[in-house]
Design goal:
The chain has about 500 residues and is of the alpha+beta class. The chain has three domains: about 60-175, Dipeptide-binding Protein, domain 1 (Alpha-Beta Complex), CATH 3.90.76; about 190-270 and about 465-490, Periplasmic binding protein-like II (D-Maltodextrin-Binding Protein, domain 2, 3-Layer(aba) Sandwich); about 275-465, Dipeptide-binding Protein, Domain 3 (Dipeptide-binding Protein, domain 3, Roll), CATH 3.10.105.10. It contains 13 helices and 21 strands. The strands form six sheets. The protein has a six-stranded mixed beta sheet with strand order 14-18-13-17-15-16. It has a four-stranded mixed beta sheet with strand order 1-10-9-8, with no helix packed on it. A hairpin with a 2-residue loop joins strand 4 and strand 5 (about 85-90). Helix 11 packs antiparallel against helix 12. It starts with a helix and ends with a strand.
């Protein structure tokens, strides 16, 4: 009996020591540093690395679980009474600096986001009564309870509130200015300790409800450029611990170089990454439908050749079919296939094309891929993600692993994917949001048909996203999304 007790104590001590060693562990994660804290606005998210950054530093009322269901985040529970949504917060939640998180923080954050009005993944104003003032949307009931007022009961608002643009920012973090955020006092699993020239130093928030001993105590977010050989060399040298999806390194090359290496854990999503070509507003004006079809046929052939022998890659015939709102009708799919098969693109040189790529590294990849087929094309990297007035063709890839159609459609609208297809994309989305399920289906199918047959977009291929972590670190995240908050990285 004494021996058993002694062994149990030794076992307990080993567990405690193991837990402590993890919490003293520092890891380095590759990160695209495209902003400074002084200029960054957490309600204005367009890129995956911004999404992950905000999701790691701030918490939302609701979250999507591993099955895609919406559950409470900092909200303990909720209930509807007619068109009123009552939300009660968890007890004793604290910020990284120890402030209690109360309904005052929630009301201030929601009103601030509504006033800024630049959320890319869904907005509450589309669920409000027409003409309702912002002040009437959300109000404090007591220290831990808030009430929202909408046009009618609709659980879609929970999905909207689960997006990081609707994160709860501590009131004290906005004390000096409503428009500038203090990233050292946060409601999330991590906070910023220091900004570096090439990244950030994050510290774990031990007061957060997601905190456990398998999380790293310190995270170094670091940018080292996008040369794949140099990135892989840094990983093998131990200078980098995690290569996340958001860094943009080709997932197929990650699999090729590391899938048989036992020193690494590979995280692979489902085939939710869609590559596509879009004709911008300028392109729809300047490029005839006949030439758009010929170019679409050429782009599809280029991607088909590039994908040969890669079992993870599937050629795409639809833009939205990967996310489940509407499976493309067989008749439309056949029409899309035939409209490209019938084209002869042998004489196409790319003359007059200005192809938009969203970053220098993406541009360089596609110059190599396209140059022999389109020797006369020019390339352009815009300052903003939304299509500008210079390019007439845009290279894109999108995470179609959204939890609901509103979030994906809102994001597509925000980056200009419906330009030239509907008269006013904002009005279309507002009407869609307020319509019943049957009407939505009709609107959605018509939008999709126009995008594919005009064509304003050319679907190319779908493939998984891939991330890499060096053992003993593992990425504990669902395969249904490209998002990878830093709290999803755990010690094995």
């Amino acid at each position: 009996m004494l021996c058993q007790t002694k062994n149990s104590l030794i076992f307990l001590i080993l567990i405690l020591l193991s837990g402590c060693s993890v919490q003293n562990k520092q890891i380095t994660i590759l990160f695209n540093k495209t902003f400074t804290l002084e200029s960054f606005e957490p309600t204005n998210i367009h890129y995956i690395h911004e999404y992950d950054f905000v999701s790691s530093l701030f918490s939302t009322l609701f979250v999507s679980d591993s099955s895609g269901d919406i559950v409470g985040g900092i909200a303990q529970n909720y209930s509807w009474n007619d068109n009123k949504l009552r939300v009660t917060l968890r007890e004793n939640l604290k910020t990284s600096q120890g402030d209690l998180i109360t309904s005052d923080d929630v009301v201030a954050s929601i009103k601030r986001t509504l006033r800024l009005g630049n959320t890319a993944h869904g907005s509450l104003d589309k669920y409000m009564s027409e003409g309702a003032p912002i002040e009437s949307v959300v109000q404090k009931l007591d220290r831990l309870s808030i009430q929202f007022s909408f046009e009618k009961e609709n659980n879609e608002v929970l999905s909207v509130l689960a997006n990081p643009e609707w994160s709860i920012i501590p009131s004290r973090s906005l004390k000096h200015s409503l428009w500038k955020v203090d990233f050292s006092n946060t409601t999330g699993a991590y906070y910023v300790e220091k900004e570096l020239t090439d990244g950030y130093v994050l510290k774990v928030n031990k007061r957060h409800y997601r905190h456990h001993n398998k999380l790293a105590s310190t995270i170094i977010l670091k940018s080292i450029g996008h040369n794949e050989k140099e990135v892989f060399k840094s990983l093998e040298a131990g200078a980098i611990d995690v290569l996340p999806i958001s860094y943009g390194i080709n997932g197929l090359n990650i699999l090729k170089n590391f899938s048989t290496n036992d020193n690494y854990n590979i995280h692979t999503t489902q085939s939710i990454q869609l590559h596509y070509i879009q004709y911008t507003k300028k392109g729809l004006r300047e490029i005839s439908q006949d030439r758009r079809l010929k170019l679409g046929s050429l782009f599809r052939d280029i991607y088909s050749r590039d994908s040969e022998g890669r079992e993870e890659v599937r050629l795409a015939n639809a833009f939205f079919s990967v996310f489940g709102m509407s499976t493309i009708a067989p008749k439309l799919e056949k029409q899309v296939l035939n409209q490209y098969k019938e084209q002869n693109h042998n004489s196409e040189t790319g003359k007059g094309l200005i192809i938009q790529a969203r970053s220098e590294d993406v541009r360089d990849k596609y110059i190599t891929l396209f140059s022999s087929f389109l020797p006369d094309a020019k390339y352009h990297v815009p300052a903003e993600i939304k299509n500008d007035v210079i390019s007439n063709v845009s290279i894109g890839n999108i995470d179609s692993g959204f939890d609901d159609d509103i979030a994906l459609l809102s994001y597509c609208e925000s980056i200009g994917l419906f330009d030239g297809i509907v008269t006013s994309s904002g009005e279309w989305l507002n009407k869609y949001t307020r319509s019943n399920k049957q009407k939505r289906k009709l609107m959605f199918d018509e939008l999709h048909r126009k995008m594919l047959t005009s064509p304003s977009v050319v679907p190319l291929r779908t493939l998984p996203y891939v991330a890499l972590s060096k053992r003993p670190w593992i990425i504990n995240q669902t395969s249904l999304t490209a998002s990878m908050p830093f709290w999803s990285i755990e010690h094995e």
